[in-house]
């Protein structure tokens, strides 16, 4: 028996409705059980919970003296983070408002050895809205390491001015802006967040992102960067080993005018544009596959792309 078109359409619509309902239920269950750690967020809404909801005003501060502290860790955060210089103690303030069907966000602090850790604790279930932000105040005299583990909030260090031993950042989608922080080394990992580091990096850079861009304006030491579609732009103060990988993002290096290096560039369809005269040692038949020396050779610069091009320029 043939089914009438109207009945068939109704059956398809009903099936689609059931499918979307099951999918929505699955997403809700995933979020309620462990969703925050997967970074699920819809605007200011972080999830849905059952039962009555309560609006909370959050304003919590924790602080510790910097004596004996060699490492500051900001852990498990999913809100904007602002870093500022000032005061005589290392201070964290969580402020804002949230709506949950359980407990509000809380700020915890612990010290173990030379490590000072600030944790933002989230309700296990039912966080409907999170409009809180975290401010970290660091004395200018602090010279240890800074580590940040964030999910989706921006990390803004525009008011932080100090010299740190190391900076390590793990984020999913939050961008990072460090205009004045001098660091011995920087290690950055992200899915879609950008890194903008204008402060000097004296001991090397490691940066890995999928769609975010990477920009560092004063780097010395070994450099290792990788991006899928985001651009990579680096200004180098002192040459060391450099390895840049990109799928479709463009790689741009600004080098000192007296730079001496060995170049190894490989791409499927990307092209190299280079301000420095290269003595070709292999390849050279196209701008997609070149190996050679500049000024007699030196530190190795290796650039690998699929379709992204590369520029090697003299520093202005």
What would you say this structure looks like, in words?
The protein has about 325 residues and is mostly beta strands. The protein has two domains: about 5-40; about 70-85 and about 135-315. The protein is built from one helix and 27 strands. The protein has one helix at about 5-35, and strands at about 55-65, 70-75, 80-85, 90-100, 105-110, 115-120, 125-140, 145-150, 155-160, 165, 165-170, 175-180, 180-185, 185-190, 195, 205-210, 215-220, 225, 230-240, 240-245, 250-255, 260-265, 270-275, 280-285, 290-295, 300-305, 310-315. It has a 13-stranded mixed sheet, with no helix packed on it. Strands 1-4-7-3-9-12-15-17-19-21-27-23 form a twelve-stranded mixed sheet, with no helix packed on it. It has a two-stranded parallel ribbon with strand order 10-13. The longest helix is centred in the first third of the chain and has 30 residues, at about 5-35.
């Amino acid at each position: 028996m043939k089914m009438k078109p109207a009945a068939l359409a109704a059956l398809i619509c009903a099936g689609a409705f059931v499918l979307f309902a099951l999918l929505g239920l699955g997403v809700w269950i995933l979020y309620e059980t462990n969703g925050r750690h997967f970074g699920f967020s819809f605007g200011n809404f972080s999830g849905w919970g059952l039962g009555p909801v309560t609006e909370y005003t959050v304003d919590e501060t924790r602080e510790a003296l910097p004596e004996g502290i060699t490492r500051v860790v900001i852990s498990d955060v999913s809100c904007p983070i602002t870093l500022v210089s000032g005061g005589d103690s290392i201070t964290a303030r969580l402020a804002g408002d949230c709506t949950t069907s359980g407990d509000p966000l809380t700020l915890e602090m612990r010290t173990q050895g030379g490590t000072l850790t600030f944790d933002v604790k989230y309700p296990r279930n039912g966080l409907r809205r999170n409009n809180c932000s975290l401010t970290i105040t660091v004395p200018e005299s602090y010279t240890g390491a800074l580590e940040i583990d964030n999910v989706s909030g921006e990390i803004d260090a525009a008011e932080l001015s100090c010299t740190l031993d190391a900076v390590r950042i793990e984020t999913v989608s939050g961008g990072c802006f460090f205009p004045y922080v001098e660091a011995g080394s920087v290690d950055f990992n992200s899915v879609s967040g950008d890194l903008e580091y204008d402060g000097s990096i004296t001991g090397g850079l490691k940066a890995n992102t999928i769609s975010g861009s990477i920009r560092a304006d004063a780097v010395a030491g070994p450099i290792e960067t990788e991006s899928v579609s985001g651009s990579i732009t680096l200004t180098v103060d002192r040459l060391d080993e450099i390895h840049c990988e990109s799928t479709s993002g463009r790689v741009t290096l600004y080098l000192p005018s007296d730079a001496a290096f060995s170049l190894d560039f490989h791409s499927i369809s990307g092209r190299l544009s280079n301000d420095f005269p290269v003595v070709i040692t292999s390849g050279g038949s196209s701008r997609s596959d070149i190996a050679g020396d500049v000024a007699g050779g030196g530190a190795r610069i290796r650039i690998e792309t699929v379709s992204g091009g590369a520029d090697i320029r003299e520093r202005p």
